[in-house]
Amino acid sequence: MNISRLQLFRAAARVERMHTVPPLHKQTDGEHMFGVLALLDHVYPEAPLRLWRAALYHDVPETVNGDTPSPALHRHTMLRDGMLEADRQVNEQYAMEIKLDTLEKRILKFCDRMELAIFCVEEADSGNIKMLRLYYRCMHSIVSDRLIDVTVNAAHLFDYVKTYVERYYGDQEERLSSMFHGTPNL
Predict the structure, then answer these.
(1) Per residue in 91-134, pLDDT tens?
(2) How far, CA to CA in Å, does 164 sit from each of 15, 32, 43, 135?
(3) What superfamily would CATH give domain 3-179?
(4) What digits encode the pLDDT tens for the residues 44-54?
């Protein structure tokens, strides 16, 4: 029995997300991972056990390596490569390396990004309209990476969330961009 791995998982549940973009309601990796698992159950209920485990483990290395802001990883390839290697080492050390096929990787990526998009909408519903900037980035990345149609249920969920935001917030993307011009990208 690997008690240190269990302790790592318990600690991972308490890592706070989005420390550079202050949400009204703090979200931990545990809450995020539960959200990803709930989305996986919705978009691909017949997922094999390896995909469920990959979803559960996907942010656990942040317990050891920290939650590096996504914009920094996109801007600095050396940082991204170093963090990927650091995460790989944690995954290896704690036996969390899981081989997924291409479709499974895409489904996990969709669930991870859609969970953040939904969290951003919940924040906007609570009055933190700035989080819609991050929502738009998530939705654009789902589109640009062609993840919308990974499953029929994923496509339906994407359309539902997009329609909800359009109905209650209109198209705020351009207004938010000009309002926060010069501030760091979320």
Answers:
(1) 788 778 999 999 999 999 999 999 999 999 999 999 999 999 99
(2) 29, 21, 18, 12
(3) Hypothetical protein af1432 (1.10.3210.10)
(4) 999 999 999 99
pTM exceeds cut of 0.90: no
The pLDDT score that the predictor gives to residue 186 is 46
As given in the structure block, the two tokens for residue 43 are 């978009």
- The ranges assigned to domains in the chain are 3-179
